[in-house]
Specification:
28% strand, 6-stranded mixed beta sheet, 2 domains, alpha/beta, single chain, 303 residues, Rossmann fold, 4-stranded antiparallel beta sheet, 10 helices
């Protein structure tokens, strides 16, 4: 297993709140001739959940690595909590929590021991791991070696580790991947609790339903560029099509589907005809999903 670099990080206390917790200004990063991140700019407010969405290879991971100080931007600037990440990475790392999809835990240690170790590295004292472990549903497994954990249990521990220093910014990469529905809901609740505490959450996920539920705003990245950024509701209003879908009985005893576009001058008359001329079995509203909108904008899916 990869050995983590040991840094003596002292948490910064008493800093003034800033309006934008994250500022990405014209970030560029190339791998050879491949432009992974192509001059992107955006900001994330203090206490906001930003969903960062895109297919594999779109530039999500490279962007997060620049924001968290793991990569130095080749051009542009990343600022977290008013601090230039490149100029003062140690000060930044004291105030962020990171949970990546690939786990880098100490597998011969227990969950409790992993958290105590990271608490020491962050200078968090006193520290008791029970509360954090309970929040992610690991009570009862805290003394078990991590090597015996399933992928889902390791993912929960990664999230717990990201909370050790009560970070002002959380970077979460696919935090519910591999979890059963109950555990995934517990992690979603943790994310919302952290937002309510005032933390900023930068969430990368392929789960469009999850992003829609959790995110205050979402940003679509494709081929290294931000192609759309707004609230999920505003994106659906701008790019989506609201419709009613009804199942009606046909003469042969089967069902056929009738779609009526909403917000059209013809909508009232179409509704009148539907109920006066057809035997409606079911009817429900339908709106575009975030994945529908991404495909509409880019011509490609998120997988």
């Amino acid at each position: 297993m990869e050995v983590l670099e040991v840094l003596k990080i002292e948490p910064v206390k008493g800093d003034n709140m800033v309006e934008d917790a994250i500022i990405a200004d014209s970030l560029i990063y190339h791998y050879g001739r491949t432009k992974a991140v192509d001059g992107i700019s955006f900001s994330v407010g203090e206490g906001e959940i930003m969903g960062f969405l895109g297919p594999n290879g779109a530039g999500k991971t490279t962007t997060v690595n620049m924001l968290t100080g793991q990569l130095r931007p080749q051009k542009g600037q990343a600022t977290l909590l008013g601090i230039d990440v490149t100029e003062n990475p140690t000060k930044v790392k004291a105030q962020i929590g990171v949970s990546f999809e690939s786990t880098n835990l100490y597998e011969l240690m227990s969950a409790e021991e992993n958290l105590r170790l990271f608490a020491r590295l962050f200078g968090v004292s006193p520290f008791e791991p029970d509360e954090v472990l309970d929040r992610v549903g690991l009570t009862g497994r805290e003394k078990d070696r991590v090597e015996g954990y399933s992928k889902g249990l390791k993912q929960r521990l990664m999230v717990a580790r990201a909370l050790v220093n009560r970070p002002r910014i959380l970077f979460l990469d696919e935090p519910t991947d591999g979890l059963d529905p109950v555990s995934a809901e517990a992690i979603r609740n943790v994310i919302l609790e952290e937002r309510d505490r005032g933390a900023t959450v930068f969430l990368t996920t392929h789960d469009m339903v999850e992003a829609d539920k959790l995110s205050d705003r979402v940003a679509f990245i494709n081929q290294g560029k931000i192609v759309a950024m707004d609230t999920p509701y505003a994106l659906k209003q701008s790019y989506g099509k609201r419709a009613l879908k009804a199942e009606v009985a046909n003469h042969g005893g089967g069902l056929k589907t009738v779609e009526i576009v909403m917000d059209s001058p013809e909508t009232p008359e179409a509704m009148r005809r539907l109920f006066s001329q057809e035997r409606v079995v079911t009817i429900h509203s339908e709106e575009a999903t975030l994945e529908d909108i991404f495909i509409h904008i880019t011509g490609r899916g998120l997988s």
